Amino acid sequence: MTNPPGFSALSLRLSDEPDPAWEVHALAVQRRAAGEDIIMLSIGEPDSPPPAAVLTEIAASIERGRTRYSAARGETVVVDAICRYASQQAGREIRPEHVNFFPGAQTALFGMLMTIVGPGDGLIVPEPYYAPYTQVLGATGVEVAEIPLRPANAFHPSLDDLRAAITPRTRAMVITNPHNPTGAVLTRSELMGIAAICRDHDMWLVADEVYSEFVYAGTFTSVLALEGFEDRTIALGTLSKSYAMTGFRHGWAISPPEAGARAGVLLEAMLFGCVQFIQDAGAVALSDGGAFPRAEREKYLRRLDLVMAALSGSAAISPRRPEAGMFVMIDVRPTGLDADAFARRLLAEERVAVLPTHTFGPSGAGHVRISLGMDDEALAEAARRIRRFADALTGPSAT
Ligand SMILES: Cc1ncc(COP(=O)(O)O)c(C=O)c1O
User: What's the whole-model pTM score?
Assistant: First the structure.
């Protein structure tokens, strides 16, 4: 055996160690596989099946022979459906030249970043952030500057922090709006402030908007709706959450036409088109006038109320009511445990899996994240266990 000839700089920038963000989740998966009754609140996967019409269309589309090579930037039927959907969010006409179909929003982020930045460029991202960004940003080779989303500011960014992080090399900012894990929704004026700074420094503004359908407080504004910034804003969307279609790998990027064309070339080189029957099914999903996401939102809101009621009033923990999304952050600092120890002991002692969010970024310290993608009964039981565990920690025996 000899050593292999070596690997690319891009490959070597990616860590091949397990991501610490998922450690507690991985432990929980192992224990559940070994037969333990664990309530899994550690992952953001919708519990609903996809819309019935989507499943019907998959079969019908295959019957129609939609199993061939396809258009690199997306099949017309789905690109048109995405245009209609995104035009509503943008309040302006989104046309096919703005759209690229990607197999999921994460791939869309990857593809668009590969298109607009590279080694030697700087990129700003608020932390904490969705853990897989680390590898996506790492792949591009950009120099990442993180700015804090402080709990004291309800996890909203500060424009001063943003200005202070900019260097002559900074080319882009990536935001998650609504945010995972914090559930913060940026106001139009916050977004305008960010966009103006991006314009002043000639930067792209990329927004991951995968939770835009699940807003409970305030109003969602897409970066596409920021007048005067159309030439630098890129929005990423998906059916993973809104239509409970995670496994379909169905997402998109909306960008200025020039960026769309360049990303299209990358798509052609890398994927040579995506699955036709998945795209047909996505077009069917998007034609429901928003009925499915509205019902999902109602469901998550009901669960959010349930969790807030069950966890509020404890001296040991305080749940933070999110403005949007599928998660609730719980501040566990009063227990005296750090979030990692809290999550590990909660798993061991009460068999509930949650994620400590310091691994999403230092400003997530002292908090754990729970997912609302679990049926009401199990969620209520999990909340009871979390409360029991936390309250016992701050009782006399815990000190
Ligand atoms: C912020 C954020 N972006 C992207 C994704 C992945 O989306 P997709 O399934 O469309 O790749 C997730 C999934 O949890 C997410 O939370």
Answer: 0.96
